[in-house]
Amino acid sequence: MAWRVGILRELLCVSEKAANIARKEGEKNKKFAVDFKPLAGVLVQEAIKQNMENKFPGLGKKIFGEESNEFTNALGEKIIMRLCPTVEETVDLLNKVLNGNKLASETLAKVVHQDVVFSDPALDAIEINIPQDTLGVWVDPIDSTYQYIKGSADIKSNQGIFPSGLQCVTILIGVCDIQTGVPLMGVINQPFVSQDLNALRWKGQCNWGLSYMGTNIHSFLPV
Ligand SMILES: [Mg+2]
């Protein structure tokens, strides 16, 4: 059986898990008495790192990101945020970061540990083998952080372009050749694209691209 672009497929899944974490904040107003937006970037980055390491042992140490995993809570305690082996342990750790807000901790831990199945038939059709040891990964877990924290959900687009607002927020994962820095593949996940005003749920979208040894393909191309 031909080896398919396993890493890129996995990055799509993990970016969708990251988008789920980002979207959980939307439920805050209903359920949580705590603002966990400052934590979301750290949590997303750690989730991406840990999930990729689990699937591709050795890759985790070549994943770099914008956030430090050191988090300071409201009491001024420094906590190293990471994904624990079990949901319960992650709940305990999140609980420290979120100053004992059990409901928020449990909700977030559940999303972080949830398996996400997410695929694109166009990507499934590609058969290409990229050796893992040549790869480096850069993550921007929440791009447009200011819009994520302060951004409105009611901004109108200008010919499809949002000048500000939640729609500007993206999860960016870029993969390069670690020797040369040449970009090889990447995923852009946009967690907030359109909102169902009755359920107040957001729908997102995810795009990807790959450029390797003469194969150039991205999610905008028809199959
Ligand atoms: Mg950022």
UniProtKB/TrEMBL annotation:
Q: Which UniProt keywords apply?
A: Lithium, Magnesium, Metal-binding
**Pfam families tied to this protein:** Inositol_P
**Which EC numbers does the record give?**
3.1.3.57
Q: What class of enzyme is it?
A: hydrolase
Example GO molecular function term? inositol-1,4-bisphosphate 1-phosphatase activity
Q: Which PROSITE patterns match?
A: IMP_1 (PS00629)
Q: Which reaction does it catalyse?
A: 1D-myo-inositol 1,3,4-trisphosphate + H2O = 1D-myo-inositol 3,4-bisphosphate + phosphate; 1D-myo-inositol 1,4-bisphosphate + H2O = 1D-myo-inositol 4-phosphate + phosphate
Required cofactor names: Mg(2+)
What InterPro entries would the database entry show?
A: CysQ/Inositol_MonoPase, Inositol_monoP_metal-BS, Inositol_monophosphatase-like, INPP1_dom_1
Q: Which residues bind Mg(2+)?
A: 66, 140, 142-143
Family statement = Belongs to the inositol monophosphatase superfamily.
This one is known as inositol-1,4-bisphosphate 1-phosphatase
Q: Which organism is it from?
A: Monodon monoceros
